[in-house]
Structure to design on (427 residues):
């Protein structure tokens, strides 16, 4: 059985037995090329489910709308880490979520109504193919795991500070502040985002580079030690701002300073939720 | 370095140690540069990175966060949390093009008036060596 058939069979079984009320997965979009999220409530509809290299969405975000209700979710390794993040932060209960983990071949770019051979940038850098946790696994687990590397971040760090400042000013000046990055992010679930506060007005509504600067800076920093690197923010960005370069810098810092990677398990407290009294940290004293 | 430029420092001082330390500097007639604008906060742990980033957005040349020495926090552990957050924020700001020296974290107790003066003096001197920063008000695009 291929991945799609396994997912369909499992979804049907889960819905028929009443183990879950809903299975969140993917179906083919109306353009016939891309995948889109599908919520299956009836066993008869499970046949619509698919899985292939176009299933780029991180469906963990939708678990936030199903708090307290038994739900199964089709999840790639990065999505599983997002589920772990939400469990860790008490947004989702582990016993209400049934994870249909998928061994991930990496997702490909889809452009102009065509599926390309090219892996998405995040998938090219990703070294995880088997989910860290699952209730049911689709596919064969492979040999894991090569060390995490940050060649893209290292390239940025190698630039002179003025060049970096100019680079980011240019990137952020293109931001239209549609907040799609936030909407797609499984870690961004505050009921009131600082960007929407009017008093104090942290992010002004005028069209100015500095307002986009503060938005992008703080969006990234709010995910420091929490970002699981699914790269949904960059995928949905209509202006193609390289947000992963920000997220991965913070990921690298928290890994180096605290030895922490978000979502690897659901128990270890996040770096900013804990501290060690004797730790030596460089803060400029 | 621009001629005649005076660096502007936003100082977030914890109510229990550093703010009292600054007060001691004042009552003891210890001088320190007038470049710092002091904002009193309940604890260094209260200093949301957003406050710091906002200060830089508005054109601050430097931001000083001062709190009780580790172990002496009035709320037991606020400064430990601050230390972790700011240890990550500094390299992140540098990555965005704001030198990490512009954000400084210092531990100043309620009796260390002289130390407070020294911290502000050395920070001001350090910032004089850097280019002045442009504030938000000069960046409005058409």
């Amino acid at each position: 059985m291929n991945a799609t058939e396994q997912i369909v069979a499992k979804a049907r079984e889960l819905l028929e037995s009443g183990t879950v009320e809903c299975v969140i997965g993917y179906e083919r979009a109306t353009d016939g090329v891309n995948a889109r999220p599908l919520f299956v409530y009836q066993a008869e509809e499970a046949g619509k489910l698919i899985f292939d290299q176009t299933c780029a969405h991180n469906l963990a975000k939708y678990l936030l709308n199903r708090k307290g209700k038994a739900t199964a979710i089709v999840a790639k390794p990065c999505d599983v880490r997002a589920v772990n993040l939400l469990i860790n932060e008490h947004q989702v209960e582990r016993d209400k979520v049934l994870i249909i983990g998928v061994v991930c071949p990496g997702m490909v770019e889809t452009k102009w109504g065509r599926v390309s051979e090219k892996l998405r940038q995040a998938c090219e850098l990703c070294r995880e193919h088997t989910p860290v946790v699952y209730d049911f696994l689709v596919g064969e687990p492979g040999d894991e795991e090569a060390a995490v590397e940050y060649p893209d971040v290292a390239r940025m760090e190698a630039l002179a500070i003025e060049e970096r400042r100019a680079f980011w000013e240019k990137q952020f000046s293109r931001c239209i502040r549609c907040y799609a990055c936030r909407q797609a992010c499984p870690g961004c679930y505050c009921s009131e985002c600082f960007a929407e506060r009017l008093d104090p007005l942290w992010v002004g509504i005028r069209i100015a580079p500095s307002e986009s600067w503060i938005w992008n800076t703080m969006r990234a920093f709010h995910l420091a030690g929490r970002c699981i690197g699914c790269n949904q923010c960059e995928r949905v960005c209509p202006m193609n701002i390289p947000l992963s370069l920000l997220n991965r810098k913070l990921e690298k810092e928290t890994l180096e300073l605290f030895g922490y990677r978000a979502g690897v398990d659901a128990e270890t407290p996040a770096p900013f939720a804990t501290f060690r009294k004797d730790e030596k940290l460089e803060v400029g004293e | 370095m621009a001629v005649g430029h005076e660096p502007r420092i936003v100082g977030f001082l914890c109510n229990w140690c550093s703010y009292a330390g600054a007060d001691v500097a004042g009552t003891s007639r210890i001088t320190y540069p007038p470049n710092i604008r002091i904002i009193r906060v309940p604890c260094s742990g209260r200093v949301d990175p957003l406050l710091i980033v906002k200060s830089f957005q508005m054109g601050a040349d430097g931001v000083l966060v001062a709190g009780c020495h580790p172990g002496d926090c009035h709320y037991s552990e606020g400064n430990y949390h601050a230390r972790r957050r700011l240890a990550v924020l500094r390299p992140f700001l540098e990555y965005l093009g704001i030198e990490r020296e512009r954000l400084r974290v210092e531990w100043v107790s309620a009796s260390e008036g002289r130390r407070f003066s020294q911290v502000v003096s050395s920070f001001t001197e350090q910032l004089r060596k850097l280019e002045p920063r442009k504030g938000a008000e000069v960046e409005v695009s058409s």
Remarks:
- Chain A has a mean pLDDT of 94.
- Residues 3-138 of chain A form one domain.
- Strands of chain A lie at 22-28, 35-40, 71-75, 97-102, 108-111, 114-119, 136-138.
- Chain A touches chain B through 44 residues (CB under 8 Å).
